From TrEMBL:
This is ABD12 lipase. PANTHER family: ALPHA/BETA HYDROLASE DOMAIN-CONTAINING PROTEIN, PROTEIN ABHD12B. GO terms for biological process: monoacylglycerol catabolic process; phosphatidylserine catabolic process. The lineage of its organism: Eukaryota, Metazoa, Chordata, Craniata, Vertebrata. GO terms for cellular component: endoplasmic reticulum membrane. InterPro entries: AB_hydrolase_fold. It comes from the Eukaryota.
Amino acid sequence: NPTESGLTTDVLALYDWAKARSGNSSIIFWGHSLGTGVATNVARKLQEERGVQADAVVLESPYTNIREAAAHFPITKIYHPFPGFEYLLLDSLALNDMFFSSDENVKVLTCPLLILHAEDDAVLPLHLGRKLFETAHSAYKDKSKVKIITFPEKLGLGHDYISFNPELPTLVK
């Protein structure tokens, strides 16, 4: 069964593999949706446990932490009024060691951080990406290393199609 710890360990192993073969090339952690929690976990582990700063982290359609993301996930909204919603759903994530605390991770990162979020994201609302940006921006000493790019609703990129934007390579550079 996938776990937060297991996903983080897997990406660290992938990083080691890529680093051993990449020469002096930069390695950027790019996470989408759930993967944004994994990307910040790995960048923080590298920094704190190995003293290695990630070259950069790009978070596409991110959230603050898995508890807050689950509370805003469309299917869970119908259960909000019912007694026990928080205990049965949200607290069960913590009981299973699922936190994906990007909001805590970005407070200690020092590498360049780029957040990408579409205004019409119906899975993880833009305000979660903005909240994560504000947390990082407040914590970073070098504010120029933290950026957010939002994509207007008229582009129709939603949760899954930011990578289809033809301007993305230029924006990321």
